[in-house]
Every structure is written in structure tokens, then in C-alpha cells.
Amino acid sequence: MRKQFIDNLRWMDVLLLIPYHAAQAFNTWGELNYICFAPKRAISSFTVFFSPFFMPLLFLLAGMSTRYALMKRTYGQYIIERIKRLLVPFVFGTLVFCPILSYMGDVNNCAYEGGFFAHYIVFFTKWTDLSGFDGGFSVGQFWFLYFLFIISLASVGIIALSNKMIKNRGKAEKLPFWAICLMVIPLPLLYGVLSVGGKSFAEYLYVFLIGYYVLSYDKVIEKAEKYRYTSLAIGLAASAANVYMFIWSGKDYEAINLIAKSFAEWFMILALIGIGKNRLDDKNSVSEYMSQRSFPYFSLHFLWIVLFQYWFADIFSGNTVLLFLVPVICAFAATLLCSEICLRIPALCFLMGTKSKRLK
After folding, report:
1. pTM of whole model > 0.85?
2. Cα torsion at 347, 3, 208, 62 (round to 10°)?
């Protein structure tokens, strides 16, 4: 039986990408962005609050979904499905959308004066930090797809090997909740391991495998549901501490900050799994609509938020609230409209890793 709360948590998480990426333009820690505005601690707090857990949650959900997928597919079929759903949209997005974002970064941050099409040469020949903020080659938000693709392939090997070596599987179902909580311990040690562009393969592989080996079992999900408010309380407290230390304290609490970040990541994930199971484990017209559009939404959202921030930069230069909210609202509308169009073009659906919608 399909677990609807996984799909619902996934599209809700993806929906956060527009305000999250919009808020990065106001960051207070000096990081470049395609568009940069005056630093604002309140808006930066939004980014820092969600950053520990909202992308790891997607990897954990992918790990859970992998167990259910492998119940119906062979390893080969699973890999082919991953190529279609992850590798194809990664290549398409990197070649089509990222050059536009990189061009915007070069214009805004490096005073690039050449034409858009001439900038393609810059995009494919300038290699720096892969962010694209300086006009160089970038994979943009599509880092998530290549991370997940590589992790999926690595996990298939791990799963196949463990299935041969371990005969008594399913012991995770018997884990007490306190033991599940202790799975937070390795996280601070993994953040800097196999890091690319500030993102850790080791962290996301760990979370993915926990999704597969632990949280995909019904009895474990039931424990997460039972203790969802305990997890939420710990997660919110850790998230608030993380925001305070990183944004508002004015001091360097690096080690403690790292621990707060890991607690925010793990306990917010447990809380969201529990709340999702309790409140979101059903299917309705809204969830069906958003689930079908989550893939094109993911591919398109960043382009629109950057364009609207660029267009409204001068108009709302004196009003931070409007400078944040208006591009976000417009980007939501434009992204959903373009997603709707893409769903009606089979070729674009294939290139964005989703299924086409048949017109009635």
C-alpha cells in the first residue's frame, strides 16, 4: 500500500524552495547569490531555521521510497528508473536553466557586459566553485539530483551486499525510540566528509540509508508518530538555538552550533515523519495536484525567483518586505503556470523526470 504521507511531505518540502532561495539574497554571512540585497537578519533566520532539515528530509524520504520500490522492481529496473527521474533532468537542467542563472550572477556580481548567448562560452569554460554566482559553470539547484543519483547507485550496491550477508533482516522494527534518537550522534562528524560545494555526500548517504533500513518499517513509523511532539519540541528548540548562535549572537559558537544543527536536523525529520503519518497520510485533489507538479516545480522555481528579484529590485528597493514577498508570490504563480504547460508536453515531461498529463 502506498504511503501517501511520503508524497505529501515531499511536495510540501519542495514548495519551500521558492521562499528559501529568495531569502538567500538577504543573507548576513557574506555568501554571494545570483541577486544580492542588503543583509537582513530576520529573513536570514528563515533560511537558517529550515536549512538543517528540509533537504535531508528529501534524502530520507527517498531512502524510504527505495525500500518500497525494490519490493516491486529488480535492481536493474530501479537504476533505469533513477536514470530517467534523476540523471536526465539533471543534465537537462544544467544545460538549459543553469546558464541563465550563471549569466544573472555574472551581470549582478561581476559587472559582465557581454550578451546572453556569448556568455555560454563563459559558462562552459569558467570553473570555480560550481555555484554560478560569479558567472562560472554551475549545477544550481540540480546538485540535489546528482547527489541523489550517485547516492541511489551506491545504496543499491550496499543493499545488494547486505542482503547477501545479513540473513535476519527487519531488526530495526524492534528498536526503541531512544535508540532511534541516538542516530543523531554521527551527524556532526559527517558534515565535512566528502563535501562538494559545502554539501556532504556522507551526511546525505547516511540519512538515505536510515530511511531505507530504519524508517521504512511500519512499526518504526508508528514510534515516530507516537513521539512526534517530543521530537518536535527538541527539534524546534535546537533550531531556535541554531538560529540564535549563527545569526543573532554575534559570537562564534562553532562546536555547539554544529551540535544544535545536527539535533535540529534529526529531530525535525523525526517530528515531520510522525506528523506526516498522523495528519497527511491521505490523498486529495490538492495533494494529487501538487505531487504531479513537484518535479517541474523543482526544475523551474530558481529561475523565476531570480528573475523576479532582478525585475523588482529597483521598484521595491526601499521596502524589504515587498522586495521579499512580491518576487516570492510572482515566482509561485509563474512556476506553477510553467509546470502546468510542461505537463502537457511529453518531451518536456521526460526531460524533467515526470509523467505527462493527458488533456481530457
Report:
1. yes
2. 0
